[in-house]
C-alpha cells in the first residue's frame, strides 16, 4: 500500500485572520483610546467649567472685596477727614481753654490785686482816723478799736508787703496800750481831783494849822478886838466874796477842762493860773493849799496829746508802699 502524505490545511485563511485580529485589536484599542480621550475631554471640560464657575465666583468675590475695599477706603477717608476736623476742633478747644485759663488767671490776679488795694485803702483810712482821734480828741479807746480793725485788714496781705506793716502795727498798739486812758483824760482826772480838794480846804486857820508856831501874845491879846493878818496872806472874805470866789473858781475850772479837751495848752495854762489866783484869794495859806498849788503847777507841765514817736509809723510805711506802687 502506498502511504499517502497527509493533506495540509490551506494556510490562506489563517493569514487573513491575523490582520483582521490586528485590525480588531487596533479598533478596540482606538476605541478605547478614543473613549479614554473622550472621558478626559469631558473631565477637562467639566473641570474647565468648574474652574470657570470658580473663577466667576472668585471674580465676584474679588469684585465684592474691591467694593468693600473701596467702601472701607471711603470710610477711612471720611474717618480721616472727621479726625482732622476733630483734631482741629480739639486744637481750637485747647487754644480756647488756654486763653480762658490765661484770662481767668489775669482776672484772679486782678481781683487779688483789687482786693489787696481795697484792704490797703481800708487800713490807711482806719489808721488815719485813729491818728485824728489821738491828735484832735485824745480818744485812746476809739484809736484802739480802729487799730484792731486795721490789723484785721492787714492780716490778709502777703508777707512780702504786709509783714513789716503788721510788725509796725503791733509796736504801735503796744505803745497805745502804754498810754492808758490818754493824757487828756488823765489831766481831766487830776484837775477834778484838784477841784474836789480845793472845796475841802478850811476857810479859816485856827491854832497851828497854817503856821509852825502859835500866834504872838500881842495878837492873842488883840484878837477879841481886831483880826490881824500878815500882808502876805489874804484878808478874811465875806460870805458874798466867798460865793463870788467859788463861782469864779468853778468857771476857771470849767474853762481849764474845755481847754484840756480841745488840746489848748495856752488856754489850759491861763485857766490854771486863774484857778491858782482864786484859790489863794479864797483860802488862807496852808500846807494843803500849797500841795494843790504844786498839783496845778504839775498840771501845766502835762502833755495834752500822745507824743510817742512810734505812733503813726504804720501809716507812714503804708503810704510809702502805696507811693512806690
UniProtKB/TrEMBL annotation:
The chain crosses the membrane at residues 16-37. Keywords: Coiled coil, Membrane, Methyltransferase, Transferase, Transmembrane, Transmembrane helix. It holds the Pfam family HemX. Residues 48-75 form a coiled coil. It is an enzyme of class 2 (transferase). InterPro entries: HemX. The keyword Transferase applies. Its EC number is 2.1.1.107. One of its GO terms (biological process) is methylation. GO terms for molecular function: uroporphyrin-III C-methyltransferase activity. This is Uroporphyrinogen-III C-methyltransferase. The lineage of its organism: Bacteria, Pseudomonadati, Pseudomonadota, Gammaproteobacteria, Lysobacterales.
Amino acid at each position: 500500500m502506498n502511504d499517502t502524505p497527509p493533506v495540509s490545511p490551506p494556510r490562506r485563511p489563517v493569514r487573513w485572520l491575523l490582520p483582521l485580529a490586528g485590525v480588531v485589536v487596533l479598533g478596540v484599542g482606538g476605541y478605547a483610546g478614543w473613549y479614554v480621550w473622550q472621558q478626559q475631554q469631558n473631565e477637562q471640560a467639566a473641570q474647565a467649567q468648574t474652574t470657570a464657575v470658580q473663577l466667576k465666583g472668585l471674580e465676584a468675590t474679588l469684585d465684592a472685596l474691591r467694593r468693600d475695599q473701596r467702601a472701607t477706603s471711603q470710610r477711612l477717608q471720611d474717618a480721616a477727614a472727621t479726625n482732622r476736623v476733630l483734631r482741629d476742633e480739639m486744637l481750637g478747644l485747647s487754644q480756647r481753654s488756654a486763653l480762658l485759663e490765661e484770662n481767668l488767671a489775669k482776672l484772679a490776679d486782678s481781683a487779688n490785686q483789687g482786693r489787696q488795694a481795697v484792704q490797703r485803702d481800708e487800713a490807711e483810712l482806719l489808721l488815719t482816723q485813729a491818728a485824728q482821734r489821738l491828735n484832735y480828741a485824745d480818744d485812746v479807746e476809739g484809736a484802739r478799736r480802729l487799730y484792731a480793725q486795721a490789723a484785721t485788714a492787714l492780716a490778709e496781705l502777703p508777707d512780702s508787703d504786709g509783714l513789716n506793716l503788721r510788725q509796725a502795727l503791733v509796736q504801735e498798739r503796744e505803745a497805745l496800750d502804754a498810754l492808758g486812758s490818754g493824757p487828756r483824760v488823765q489831766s481831766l482826772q487830776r484837775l477834778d481831783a484838784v477841784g474836789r480838794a480845793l472845796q475841802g480846804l478850811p476857810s479859816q486857820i485856827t491854832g497851828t494849822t497854817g503856821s509852825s508856831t502859835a500866834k504872838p501874845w500881842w495878837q492873842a491879846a488883840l484878837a477879841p478886838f481886831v483880826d490881824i493878818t500878815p500882808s502876805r496872806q489874804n484878808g478874811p472874805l465875806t460870805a458874798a466874796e466867798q460865793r463870788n470866789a467859788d463861782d469864779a473858781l468853778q468857771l476857771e475850772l470849767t474853762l481849764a477842762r474845755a481847754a484840756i479837751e480841745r488840746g489848748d495848752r495856752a488856754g489850759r495854762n491861763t485857766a490854771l493860773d486863774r484857778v491858782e489866783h482864786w484859790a489863794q484869794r479864797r483860802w488862807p495859806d496852808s500846807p494843803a493849799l500849797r500841795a494843790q498849788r504844786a498839783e496845778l503847777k504839775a498840771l501845766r507841765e502835762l502833755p495834752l496829746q500822745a507824743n510817742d514817736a512810734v505812733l503813726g509809723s504804720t501809716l507812714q510805711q503804708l503810704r510809702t508802699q502805696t507811693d512806690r506802687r
